[in-house]
Description:
By secondary structure, the protein is mainly alpha-helical. The protein has helices spanning 20-26, 35-45, 47-69, 100-107, 126-162, 164-179, 182-201, 211-223, 226-239, 243-250, 255-266, 268-291, 303-310, 319-346. The radius of gyration is 29 Å and the shape is flat.
Amino acid sequence: MNKRPFSFHVDVDAFMPASEEDKAYMVQMRPSSTFFKDGVKRLLKNKVATISFIIIVLITLSAIFIPMFYPYSYDSMLGVRPGKSVDASYNNLRPFEYGKTEQQRIEAGENIFPHIFGTDAQGRDYFIRVVYGTRISMAVGFFASLIVLVIGMTVGSIAGYCGGKVDLIIMRIVDMIYSLPDMLMVILLSSVLKVTLGPVIDGTVLAKIGSNIISLFVVFGILYWVSMSRLIRGQILSLREQEYVLAAQATGAKAGWIIRKHLIPNCISVVIISTALQIPNAIFTESYLSFLGLGVNAPMPSLGSLASEALNGLASYPFRLVIPAIVISLIVLSLNLFGDGLRDAFDPKLNV
Length: 352
């Protein structure tokens, strides 16, 4: 009997139980994963971001561990001997050159560690000063970005969740700060705070850090949190209308608890990406302020202050300017490329 193609009768054979082989063929099991694991997998597939991350890690580890075993100090003038005249042969040495007394010790069979980048005009080893400058610049960049993150996240969360007049007042303050010229305000605030903070912190633990670095942190805390707050506010404005937020409000949960437990965790990817992109901006700001003499306190070096000092002997010793400039460029470029990779890997809107 021929089957009628347009018949309404059910073909029972099509609903026979599937065998184990059929089930194994049809069911494709996927190992359990999380948003973070998936983001890391996507990040590792980005070769540029991975290489940038490796460079950042190597530079950071070098800045931390090299001073522990390096034989020279960043502030020791090699030509100055207690009770003796200053040996000017240690000043302005080129890479892998030695002073007169060092040459005599080498001729006597003693092993002397070379000056990899030579010395500066005061006879200080330039390599260790570059390493310390990298440490200072990266530390300032990371801590300044942390300050921006805390202030921006707090203000943006309050503005986005509360809304109404609170949001209006906060956003008008943000607009006023946005209207200020960044470069001019940074220079003015750094100049004023450099003078006013000195007597206040004198004799305290903060005196070891220096008034200039503290003024940098204050400048970042005053000016650079506005972009982060706007970003967090926009995210929370879209998240606060979700059902799980309404359910938490219906159960009597307080605003602070909802922000900490529901809203911030759901926009954490955007926070991480923005913070990663903020770090190179903070490092660059510290570098040009140190270049202008408003950065770290002497004799502590930073990459910007090293570049500024190198201008005096630019015609004779151009490598002193080239070396810190290359290190700054490498750090900022690597952090920017790594931040772009984080955005591509963890931004859910780009992975739909």
